[in-house]
């Protein structure tokens, strides 16, 4: 799950539907990205970050590292 993305979306008072419309994708597709059940492509990460005026690494890096560390601990 992309916690920073969800938190930022809440702070900006945007709904999943708002994000999907801005990105030109369906609401279920966006929800799957935010919940981590669909892989986030680099292109989509850039597009999402642009909506918030951020760089993709600033928005997604911490969540990536948390997921990576959890995966390594499960091995």
* Tally of separate domains: 1
Please work out how many helical segments DSSP would assign: 5
- Rg computed from alpha carbons, rounded to a whole number of angstroms: 12 Å
Could you tell me how far the N terminus lies from the C terminus, measured between alpha carbons in angstroms? 20 Å
Share of β-strand residues: under 5%
Give the beta-strand count. 0
CATH topology: 434 Repressor (Amino-terminal Domain)
Q: Supply the CATH class.
A: Mainly Alpha
SSE topology:
Blueprint: H1 3-11, H2 16-23, H3 27-34, H4 42-51, H5 56-73
3D architecture notes:
It is a single chain. The mean pLDDT is 85. The chain has a single domain (3-73), classed as lambda repressor-like DNA-binding domains (434 Repressor (Amino-terminal Domain), Orthogonal Bundle). By secondary structure, the chain is an all-alpha fold. 71% of the residues lie in helices and 0% in strands. Helix 2 (16-23) crosses helix 3. It has helices at residues 3-11, 16-23, 27-34, 42-51, 56-73. The chain contains five helices and no strands.
Provide a quick synopsis of the model.
The protein has 75 residues and is mainly alpha-helical. 71% of the residues lie in helices and 0% in strands.
Keywords for this entry:
75 residues; 5 helices; 434 Repressor (Amino-terminal Domain); mainly alpha
């Amino acid at each position: 799950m992309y916690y920073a993305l969800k938190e930022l979306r809440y702070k900006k008072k945007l709904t999943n539907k708002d994000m999907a419309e801005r990105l030109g994708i369906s609401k279920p597709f966006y929800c799957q990205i935010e919940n981590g059940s669909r892989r986030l492509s680099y292109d989509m990460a850039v597009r999402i970050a642009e909506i918030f005026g951020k760089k993709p690494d600033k928005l997604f890096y911490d969540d990536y590292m948390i997921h990576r560390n959890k995966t390594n601990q499960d091995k």
